[in-house]
Amino acid sequence: MQHTLQVQGMTCGHCERSVTQAVQRVDPDATVRIDRAQGQVVVESDEPRTALAAAIAEEGYTVAP
Prior knowledge:
The protein is 37% helix and 29% strand. The model has no long low-confidence stretch (mean pLDDT 97). It is an alpha+beta fold. The two termini are 18 Å apart. The chain has one domain: Alpha-Beta Plaits (2-Layer Sandwich). A 4-stranded antiparallel sheet has the order 2-3-1-4, with helices on one face.
């Protein structure tokens, strides 16, 4: 299942790695694509969107509902 999340606060490569690692802690098999300029994170995962968003938020980023 594909989830598209709007994430605020990503400003660098470190941010992208942090978001990717957060998602992969929830689902190690997830595929993560990030468009930092658009603030968009696209995740291929069978995990619920809420779990993925919560993991990203725990890293300090704002995820739009």
